[in-house]
Amino acid sequence: xxxxxAEQAERTLDELIPVAHQIADAINTVVVGKPGAIRLAMxxxxxxxxxxxxxxxxxxxxxxxxxxxxxxxxxxRRVQFTPDLLPSDITxxxxxxxxxxxxxxxxxxxxxxxxxxxxxxxxxxxxQSALLESMEERQVTVDGVTYPLESPFMVIAxxxxxxxxxxxxxxxAQRDRFTARISIxxxxxxxxxxxxxxHGSSSPLDDLKPAAHATDVRALIAAVREVHVAAQVRQYxxxxxxATRNASALRLGASPRAALHLLRASxxxxxxxxxxxxxxxxxxxxxxxxxxxxxxxxxxxxxxxEQPEHVLARIVERVPLHNR
Length: 324
What we know:
single chain, disordered N terminus, globular, two-stranded parallel sheet, Helicase, Ruva Protein, domain 3, alpha/beta
């Protein structure tokens, strides 16, 4: 007899994509006027990645993270990052059990399907680094013992710009593990009026019901892996990555991990567009969110206020798509 989870895994992409749209529609009822940010968050989820939501206070960073978490019937834990937070507060700790006369592991909040890290750059770099192993290897090692994390596993971290007081810049290794950086921005006038109507008296987050189960997301992730990426598109991704390493305005270009994340995100985005193949437009659209937060400008570029996003935009415009 085939288990329910095995049946879910056998479902095709065409059968599963409506589930992804249902999740996005549920988030849309809470986060008003930001379909692009919601689509990008869904792309990261289906690409088995992690999202860094960065923007000024009050634009809905935590609301987007909460809405995504509540729209899926799975385990969710939230971590409020503060300067005094310890790595063990995230990963868990081995405590001595007096009755059993042995140490037993007490899992931390990282042991959930969706982990919401609020204001991640308010914690010290040591505490931020506690997420490195879990985000890359889907496991946690405490006192020499390794504990696997259940799929789906996604870290959704929010942060204010580093110019804000009381913040610590994320280390390069930490930023490189986030699949994409999402900037929400201020809503337009019509969306802000709609927000006053819907959020003025109560939060629509309270009425948000799960639109899918964790098994649906697992099946979606498995189906997205099968989205076709032609050799020309793969070469196009590598050409963009290589160009970032050779750009005179950048002292740190994109890593091989960045190339993998761009490929996976392109597959997920194509699936959300109801396609089973990736086109160059997908790569171009995602290059900024997936790559820009990993790039470091040179001192001259910083003085000239040239942001990595601007350098990357010029690279994408300049790199040709070769028909091979």
